[in-house]
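Sequence of MoaB/Mog domain-containing protein (Polytomella parva).
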Amino acid sequence: PPPPPSPPCPALTRSAAIVIIGDELLSGKVTDVNSGFLCRELHHLGWRVRRILTIPDTADEIADAIRSLMSYNELVITAGGVGPTLDDVTVGAVARALDRPVTRSRILEDRIHKFFGSATTEAHLKLADTPADAELIEVMGGDGLPSPFAAVKCENVIILPGVPQFLQSKWPFVARCLKKPGELAPFHNVALRLGLQDEAALAAALEKVADELGGPAADVRLGSYPVSNQLDGAAIVVTVDGKDEARVRAAAVALRKWMPAAAVINELTDVESIDQTQPGGEEGRK
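Predicted 3D structure, token representation.
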């Protein structure tokens, strides 16, 4: 049977955009890992990431990107450009995008003085600069005290560092601000791992089930992805994603019905990655 109809009041989905900042990324000197991390974490919280931009350390381009993304996303996260040197221009660019001045947080300034002591310089104190009236997202240190390097939120923009280690250490504290009880529901997925080599053999099945779901605007999304060097021998992974678990599972059943016989090697649920090149590389999130 076709998947059940969409419920009259589907779980709300909030939209997010990510701005990855750094000349070193665009020149290929550094590999971006922040966008993948942020996408996975936001998806897990129930946010749908609609855009990822990678732009240089240029204040005008950063400000323009933020203004544009703010206009149609409920959240914009920046990563990069918040250090103490001349190429760290993100705070000023965010302030410009929001039509605010840059001010120095007395709270952060005091903490930085305590952290660096007599070695504190003006470059260190640049780390205390924020857009005016910004909110500090407190990050607790290993000693249980607030860190001098808080995350910053201003309107619907959250400013994070570009160094992956620092960004990821701040994320649990940011994530608490982004959970929306009663407003956000988690995404669910089914991953059908196939032994087929010819992706074109799936086209008709995908189109048939997509039409049954309601077309491109449906609340359940289908995807087909060729893979290689998988432990189970899979050559293609077909995914079904959505917030209504019953519709996701029903769509997976419908797909199996229309697929070539014995095509499915394995079926997994609520996976974080379709890659299974290492033991434990793909596990269901229970």
